[in-house]
Specification:
The chain is an alpha/beta fold and 309 residues long. The protein has one domain. 42% of the residues lie in helices and 7% in strands. It is built from nine helices and six strands; from the N terminus they run E-H-H-E-E-E-E-E-H-H-H-H-H-H-H. It has a four-stranded mixed sheet with strand order 1-2-6-5, covered by helices on one side. Strands 3-4 form a two-stranded antiparallel sheet. Strand 5 and strand 6 form a beta hairpin. The protein is globular and about 45 Å long.
Length: 309
């Protein structure tokens, strides 16, 4: 994947204390003693439940403008402080460049898709951090992994997670890392379309935990499918130069983060009623569906019966 040919977003906040990763590679660093079972939480849309912070009862606002996200059009926050794309003294190392260009590519793809329906796509910001970070959904540590906060319309990422993907999940590679970002952006798309709000209301009305979990699975599988839609659009450009090996990387990652795979590795047994993200087969299938068609309308994970997903 020739990610360096993709457009930059200019919409990345670098809050990393060290200002970059050593060694010039993406798969360096590390989270330490992270157990594999925790990875099941890495691709959620509602981190407030995990983090114990934020108001989970607050209604998510869709179609947020930059000002509603605490930022004006000229890059200043509402309290008058400038919101730079980097921390002071930071450097645009390779990991920063990679994230910026993948985000820029998702911006381009979803802006075009929304325009086809006469809608305006509000581009999300992506926050790079190391160790821990404060979001509108609460305080998060690196152990939570990449997440999207619907309360501030931002994606949060500690790039050391890429190292965890490679060493513990066998899901390394540039396109696999890009899939992670595209999945979280998929949650932003759901936020923009009002889908996240609808799912939250259904979860609150659910009579059992298993029913509530089923809505989470549908939401996550749709984000996988949206990531596939992005991959389809990128594949159609000469800039990305995707290969079959790149596609295998993404499929390997989708399979590795299935609830059944993670539960089997973490606790030795599988409990389908507790699934929140979908099985390895489901995640691979829905990513593939989006990747093959490039049509977000094919990503309706809420229409089929649950046992048919």
């Amino acid at each position: 994947m020739d990610w360096k040919n993709l457009p930059g977003s200019g919409n990345v906040e670098d809050r990393r204390g060290g200002g970059g990763l050593p060694g010039g590679g993406l798969a360096v660093g590390g989270i330490g003693g992270l157990i594999i079972a925790v990875v099941a939480m890495f691709f959620g849309i509602d981190p407030s439940v995990i983090l114990g912070g934020g108001d989970s009862g607050q209604q998510t606002q869709t179609q947020n403008t930059p000002a509603q996200n605490g930022q004006t059009q000229n890059g200043q926050t509402q309290n008058g402080q400038t919101q730079n794309s980097q921390t002071q003294g930071g450097t645009q190392d390779e990991s920063y460049q990679f994230v910026d260009r993948i985000l820029g590519s998702t911006d381009q793809v979803w802006t075009g898709i929304f325009q086809q329906s006469d809608r305006q796509y509000t581009k999300p910001r992506l926050v790079l951090f190391s160790g821990s970070v404060s979001s509108a959904c609460g305080q998060a540590s690196s152990a939570v992994g990449p997440f999207y906060c619907p309360l501030d319309s931002k994606v949060y990422l500690d790039t050391s997670f890429f190292n965890t993907m490679q060493r513990q999940l066998g899901g390394g590679g540039d396109f696999a890392y890009a899939y992670v970002i595209a999945h979280e952006v998929g949650h932003h798309v759901q936020n923009e379309l009002g889908i996240a709000d609808q799912v939250e209301r259904k979860q609150r009305a659910a009579r059992t935990e298993a029913e509530a979990n089923s809505y989470s699975v549908r939401l996550e599988l749709q984000a996988d499918c949206f990531a596939g839609v992005w991959g389809n659009k990128v594949r159609g450009t000469e800039a990305a130069n995707l290969t079959q090996a790149d596609i295998r990387e993404a499929l390997t990652t989708a399979s590795a983060i299935g609830d059944d795979t993670l539960q089997r590795a973490g606790q030795g047994r599988v409990v389908p009623d507790s699934f929140t993200h979908g099985s390895s087969e489901q995640r691979t299938e829905w990513f593939t569906k989006g990747f093959q068609s490039g049509n977000p309308n094919d990503c309706d994970t809420f229409a089929p019966a649950y046992d048919q997903l």
